[in-house]
Structures are given as C-alpha cells and as structure tokens.
Design brief:
The protein has 468 residues and is an alpha/beta fold. The chain is built from 20 helices and six strands. The protein has a six-stranded mixed β-sheet with strand order 3-2-1-4-6-5, with helices on one face. The longest helix is centred in the first third of the chain and has 26 residues, at 63-88.
Length: 468
C-alpha cells in the first residue's frame, strides 16, 4: 500500500505541476459545483459534485481541489481492495496480486488519470459494497448494516449504472446461506433506512426532471428493439469484446500464466466468498443473454463496464487459489509487467504535457488558457464576464473567483454587483463562430506558441445589455 500511495502521489504531482489546464470532466465539475443542488441534468447523480462543492469552499474552485478529490477516492479504492482481499484469499501473494490488478486494466492504469470523475466514485462504491457484504456474516453488528447501507447509497449517487452491480450482487448473496442469513435479519432495516436517507433527496429531484435525464440517457445508450436477430447477436458480440477489453492486458497475462490453474479448480468446493463472485457472474451472464434476445445497442464503450468487470480479477484469483497459491512465475511476471506499464504511463503523461505539442500531439491539456488570462489586463471588479464556450468558461470561473460570469445562457452570480461593463472572451480553439463585434470596444488579444500551434485568447468590451 505504501508503493501504491507513492505511485498515486507521482500522478497527482504530474497533474498539478506540469499543466494547469482543466480536463473536460474537470471543467464540467467547475461549472456544476458552483452551487449545491439535489441533481444536475448531465445525466449523472450529484454526489461527486457535492464532494467537489465542499472542497471548493475550502480550497477554491480549481484544479487543486478536483485533483485532491480524485486521488483521495482512488487511494481509498486501492485500500478497500486490500481489505476485501483479507476475506477472499488465504495467501498474502494473492492479496498483492488482487491490489495490483487495477494497474493492469486501462480504465485504472490510464483513463482514471485522464478525465474520470463520477466513474472514480463508482469504482470506490463497487469495492465498498463488496467489502460491506464480505464482512457482514463475520461482523453482524449495527455498524455493519449501516456500512452496507452507506455503500449502496454512495453507489446509487455515484452513477446510475451502479444498479448493474448492486442488483446481481445482492441476488448472488441471497443464494448463499451465510449471506442470506445475515441479510434477512431485522437489522436489515438499518441498511434500508440508510439507503433511503442517502438517495431520497435526489429521487425527489429526479421525479421532477425525469424527462430531461432519461431522454439524455436513452440518447446516449441508443437501446432499440427494432433490430433483427443478426443485429442482436452482433450487439452481444460487441458487449463481449468490450468486456474483455476492459480487463486487457490483465486477462491476457493471467490466461497465459494461470489458465491451467483455474481449470484445475473445477470440481473443488469453493468458499462462500468465492461463490458470491461466481454466482454474481453467472447472474450477469444469464441476464445479458436474455436481454440480447429482445434488445440491442449499436455500440458499447469499454469504460462503461466498471459495474460488471471491475471485480473480475478478484473472481479469477479466488477460483485460481482453490487449487494452489499463485506461482512464483505468475508473481514475477505480474510484478514486472505492472512496473513497466506504470513507468510507461508516467512517462507518457509527462511527455503529453511537456513536449507533446512539439511532437505533433496538441490536446486540451496543452492550451495555455490560464497563461493567456494572466497576460490580459485584469477586469474591473464590477465587470461581468461572458463566453459561449463552456470549456473556456470553466477556466474563467477558476481564474476569476469574485466576478459575475455568464457561460452561454447560464449566469454564475458571484462577488460584487456588476456595473456597466461586459467583457466577452473567446479563443481560436472555440467551437463557436467568431462573435459579432459591431458594438465592441477595447479589443485585447494574446497569442501564445505551443509547439507548432498558435493559441489565441481574445476579449472585447461590450455594452452591458449584451451580458443579460
């Protein structure tokens, strides 16, 4: 865990020291978390934004607060994986392999550093729920039922897709005597009450905004019943390949080095914790096959598979350990592969925010937005700032914490009451057409070289009515 903590600290420092520009998901949080609301039509539950709002009150709206939140949640996820492994495994080497498994899956090894927000909280809730279930038969105290309720509540407020884990995992637990006995106790009311306290406020909001939220989800998933059987089989194939991609290269390494050991465990009596994960995947498999007979989706994104595939390495390791502890060869290969992949990713992240543009890779992270704002004349405290670009607008919110700022049609009223000045901002990466400058005065612009790219940031003064 000390090594994992050092690894996460390196990533945190790379993010803070080499580029102050926000990622797309961070920019979204800057905009949403200016206010504390029961829901945000993005469509995601509000818990991550609540955490962001809390840290903004302490550290200000900016990259520091968002980065600290992200790596705190990731660190807790690794810690809970380690705690779960004490219930799942008999050998210390298996616990070690279980914890390192996250670093051999792209969603954790790479994507969680690049832009995830709600998905990071979802990952923590998944492991937290598993840990709460695993400890319940051995520690059936009121605190354990409270813990399980909190884990489920956090998951439901992290991402709506948490239901894809919660329902099959609870069904799996009910098929196993020790877990069923623990769940069907009068103390279960503690769990149910805790879940209700977590989710009821957002459910009230959701009932009032269901059209905009569910239509957005439907548009994103594009689920249909109209495809022929061949189309549904194609959808099932895409689902399967995306699920495998989620655990690659981890899966490739383990199939080659421990596939025979996994097959040797067949016919041996697994522990209840192993049965919990095995039956979870049986329920998922049966549900996917049945649903594919009636519905299809045109595409699946690998990063959607956290609820279904995040626990897959734990299941594999529990099945493998039935026949024998992990071999020295497996441990050696996993150790070196994890080290090399982690060093490669650290190097790529540094190159991305340093010499990336010189190598022809110019991305959002390379836009010198804050550097450009520093070079522009500071706006009057009473001026209202405006932009049509949500990404640029998030940087205005972070850089000018005491100004009234308008992003599109949304007004963030902060600081002193606005006077008679309106400043319009745009840049040459702005997806919108150039603004109408008929009534503009005092135009200022700054051009900064980023490798082979010229980044231009512009501002003009407009009549105040243009910002209303």
């Amino acid at each position: 865990m000390v090594l994992v903590g050092g690894y996460l600290l390196l990533h945190l420092l790379i993010r803070l020291l080499f580029s102050g520009t926000l990622q797309l998901d961070d920019a979204e949080q800057i905009r949403l978390s200016q206010t504390l609301a029961l829901g945000y039509p993005i469509p995601q539950p509000p818990l991550y934004s609540w955490f962001s709002w809390g840290l903004f009150q302490l550290l200000g709206s900016g990259l520091l607060a968002l980065t600290l939140l992200k790596y705190l949640l990731i660190g807790l996820t690794f810690g809970l994986i380690w705690r779960c492994s004490s219930y799942l495994f008999h050998h210390q080497s298996s616990r070690w392999l279980a914890t390192l498994a996250l670093l051999l899956m792209p969603s954790f090894a790479w994507h969680m550093h690049q832009g995830f927000t709600h998905t990071i909280l979802l990952g923590l809730a998944i492991v937290m729920t598993l840990h709460a279930l695993l400890r319940l038969p051995q520690h059936p105290s009121p605190v354990s039922y409270l813990y399980l309720g909190s884990a489920l509540g956090i998951g439901l407020l992290a991402k709506y897709s948490f239901l894809l884990l919660m329902i099959p995992l609870l069904l799996s637990a009910l098929t196993i005597r020790s877990y069923r006995h623990s769940l069907l106790q009068p103390r279960l009311w503690i769990t149910l009450t805790t879940v209700a306290l977590w989710v009821t406020p957002h459910l009230v909001w959701l009932s009032q905004h269901q059209q905009e939220v569910f239509s957005s989800i439907e548009q994103k998933l594009q689920v249909t019943q109209e495809n022929l059987l061949l189309g549904r089989l194609s959808s099932l194939w895409q689902f399967t390949t995306s699920a495998i991609a989620f655990v690659t290269p981890w899966a490739l390494l383990y199939v080659l080095l421990s596939g025979k050991q996994l097959l040797a465990s067949r016919g041996r009596t697994p522990s209840h914790s192993t049965q919990l994960l095995s039956r979870f995947y049986w329920i998922v498999l049966i549900a996917v096959i049945l649903l594919s007979l009636f519905f299809s989706m045109p595409h699946f994104k690998v990063r959607w598979f956290h609820p279904l595939m995040m626990l897959f390495p734990l299941w594999w390791l529990t099945r493998m350990e039935i026949s024998a502890p992990p071999s020295a060869t497996l441990i050696r290969w996993v150790g070196w592969s994890t080290l090399l992949l982690s060093l490669l990713i650290l190097s790529i992240r540094i190159v991305q925010v340093t010499v990336g543009p010189e190598l022809g890779h110019y991305s959002r992270l390379n836009r010198p937005i804050f550097e450009g704002l520093e070079q522009l004349p500071p706006p009057s405290p009473s001026a209202r700032l405006k932009t049509e670009d949500e990404f640029l607008g998030a940087h205005l919110l972070a850089h000018y914490p005491n100004h009234s700022i308008m992003i599109g049609m949304t007004l963030y009223q902060r600081g002193a009451a606005p006077g008679e000045r309106c400043l319009l901002f745009w840049d040459n990466d702005d997806p919108f057409p150039p603004p109408d400058l008929t009534h503009a005065t005092l135009q200022k612009n700054r051009s900064l070289s980023v490798g082979k790219v010229q980044y231009g940031l512009n501002t003009v003064q407009l009549p105040y009515r243009e910002c209303q």
